[in-house]
Specification:
By secondary structure, the protein is mostly helical. Helices cover 75% and strands 3% of the residues. The chain is built from 21 helices and 4 strands.
Length: 464
């Protein structure tokens, strides 16, 4: 039965993440990069400056710019950075990392644009809290006639939270990491639905912590994210840097292998184009999964920022893609390629675990423990961030019906609880499908409103 389900999901995934969507994502990023004259490069230093200096005249909003960035990063820095990169390289070859970086580079302009629009078109709900995101800039920017597109985005947003990035893939990654560390031989298992499962206790404990934080709403999620995200991101980056330093002689060869694989140069005769397309598909899909540029999630957090300047928040928000993919995912990918962990027949978190065990100068158990901790905390904060995103989507669909949102929280928590019982391949395939579907209406809106983004950007920088 599981094989049949996986086969069906794979066919749907191939259809959703076919050439049209890949071209659309890249083309949107390239188009916005050109229209904004490479703002992700020209204003990168200014963006970092703004990240640590909040506005003093912001009249509206619930959280700081740094808080919004951490909330967005809490939802993006997760299993995609650790498990997703390895999964992409195993499925698409080392070249998947190249296309992941390309998509992220142009996707930074996409992230800037969508978060700028989120501030410009945000609104105040009846209970006083700030709401915004793609559903509002579609409705208010493109007009009432496009409200149906806004609703489609919101529906997919709820699905991504429940079935994609928010729950299954994160908790599955956590329990897999804990299992690989404490019970790699599956000596302690329970049988459910005819299958053996290990370390379900880890999922239960995490579900309890998730429930505690989620009930506190955005402010509690932001508070937790501002503590956990910077600390764990720094710890993970340091570990990856150590691997690269100790194996610096292998970096040039790894880069060559990545580039050759990206263009199918290592494929057998006649298979170059197919190898290249596979690398593009897996790299771009996992890159979007990781940094969410173009999906439309980050604008939901950005809309709650205490700011009066859409451009300023756009600059801060675009750093999420830089930090998430261009820095963290690249380090993970290089570590995997350098240590040769991608072609050892491993799956999921085991790929990156082996890279850390081979690359770090510690006993294998210590290296695995470091990675396990990073993955647990990254995935935990991603679960929190995506609950907030999907709740705001549900808010839009139900007219801010509090009873529905409260019921949804318990459904979300239930999905976290059952996540460990999903197969690894099924989890990632479901995540890919709903991610792709969510991106389509948002990309349409970004292309339609690109003139607004350019006008706002020009107006802001004329002040200086």
């Amino acid at each position: 039965m599981f094989g049949t389900i996986n086969s069906i999901l794979t066919k749907i995934d191939d259809l959703v993440w076919g050439v049209p969507l890949i071209v659309m994502i890249l083309a949107t990023g390239i188009f916005l990069t050109i229209r904004l004259k490479g703002i992700q490069v020209r204003k990168l230093i200014l963006a970092f400056k703004y990240m640590f200096s909040n506005e003093t005249d912001g009249e509206h909003g619930e959280i700081s710019s740094f808080g919004a960035l951490c909330t967005a990063l809490s939802a993006t820095i997760g299993t995609g950075n650790i498990v997703g990169v390895g999964t992409a390289i195993v499925a698409g070859g080392p070249g998947a990392l190249f296309w992941m970086i390309v998509a992220a580079t142009v996707g930074t302009a996409t992230k800037y644009s969508e978060c700028l629009l989120a501030i410009k078109y945000r609104t105040v709900a009846d209970d006083g809290h700030i709401v915004g995101g793609p559903f509002y800039y579609i409705e208010k920017g493109m007009g009432e006639n496009w409200k149906w597109l806004a609703k489609i985005f919101a529906v997919f947003g709820v699905m991504v939270g429940l079935l994609g990035i928010g729950t299954f893939s994160q908790i599955n990654g956590i329990t897999s990491a804990v299992n690989n560390f404490f019970d790699a031989n599956n000596a302690w298992t329970v049988q459910l639905f005819g299958r053996d499962y290990s370390w379900t206790v880890a999922g239960i404990i995490l579900t309890i912590f998730v429930a505690f934080v989620i009930i506190g709403g955005l402010r509690r999620i932001s508070a937790v994210a501002q503590v956990v995200v910077p600390f764990m991101a720094a710890a993970y980056i340091i570990a990856a840097v150590v691997i690269l330093i100790l194996n610096y002689k292998a970096i040039p060869g790894a880069v060559v292998e990545i580039v050759q694989s990206a263009f199918g140069m290592r494929a057998v005769a006649g298979g170059a184009l197919g190898a290249m397309m596979l690398a593009m598909q897996k790299g771009i899909a996992r890159g979007i999964f990781s940094n969410e540029a173009g999906i439309g999630s980050a604008p939901i957090a950005a809309a709650a920022v205490q700011t009066t300047e859409p451009v300023r928040q756009g600059l801060v928000s675009m750093l999420g893609t830089v930090i998430d993919t261009i820095i963290i995912c690249t380090m993970t990918g290089l570590s995997i390629v350098i240590t040769g962990s991608w072609d050892k027949g491993l799956e999921g978190v085991a790929v990156t675990t082996r890279a850390f065990q081979v690359g770090l100068p510690f006993p294998a158990k210590v290296s695995a423990f470091i990675l396990m901790l990073c993955l647990v905390f990254f995935a935990f904060t991603t679960i929190l961030g995506w609950d907030y995103y999907s709740e705001r989507c549900l808010d839009y669909l139900t007219g801010n019906n509090k009873k529905v949102v409260r019921a949804y929280r318990w459904i979300y928590i239930a999905c976290v609880f059952i996540g460990p019982y999903m197969t690894v391949s099924a989890v990632w395939t479901i995540a890919d499908i709903v991610n792709g579907l969510m991106a389509i209406p948002n990309l349409i809106a970004l292309l339609a409103l690109n003139g607004v983004v350019v006008a706002e950007t020009k107006k802001y920088f004329k002040k200086f």
